[in-house]
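Much of what follows relies on a compact textual record of a protein's fold. A record is reproduced here so that you can trace the correspondence yourselves:

. . .
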Amino acid sequence: MTEKILVIGGSGLLGYHLKQNLIDFDTYFTYNENKLNSEKTNFLDITNKHNLEKIFEIVKPDTIFHTAAITNLDWCENHEQETFAVNTNPIRNIVDLAKTYNSKLIFMSTDSVFDGKRGNYVENDPWNPINIYSKSKIEAEKIIKKLDDSLIIRGTFFGIKKNKESFLSYLLNQLKNGKKIKVPKDKISNGLFVNDFAKIMIEMNRKKLSGLFHIGSSDNVNNFEFAQQIANIFGYEKDLIQNSLFEDIFYEKNLIAKRPLNTTLNINKISNIIRMPNVKQVINSFYENIR
């Protein structure tokens, strides 16, 4: 019997790539603002308990991929109540419904649950959030941990968003137009291209993993070096990329929420089960997918 999957947040960047890779499953998607072009798609106001119950009654999912969240850090910083209303509070209802329908819950958390002072964080390192968004994700994790059949995935991903500018689209547009761009040399993570991130999540579900896992590239470079490698592979002039400190960019762009500088995750736990790509493979995958 084909596994029945519900993707909450199907219109987001990660949800879109899950959609591209879940073709072998009986998959249903929810959206909030951007309607999806799919027969098995339903509108969902995640803050509405009755709406959630109706979706679960329709789908009766074996597995739930929960990727819906408000991720604009600066907006979250100024709207704490609204952030928790979407990122945290609905989790209680989703957990209850997962128990009712005997569904596995797979939750997309974040690498920024840590303060970013040292990096190479392992799964059981203590939380130390420095912004509202991260706090909302931590509180969600606490609720999900009470569900036996659950999987919490921490990591970060990048890609090109269709209706919204991302760092990568901004970087490529600047380079394409021969314009200089400042990129911080003191900010570092071991993120993945979103399509590979989605594939790894699906593989983790296939292997019936549960608990808490960090995923990411097997090595890492700082944002400045990463941007230079992106310029290289696309054939743009890498000298247009100027190294900077994140603090300078923070004030120049009038950002509000604090960002952890080093959110590299230790991936030894998942690497014993699924092989993680290195930075070169991550960049090549991004290039091959969007060129």
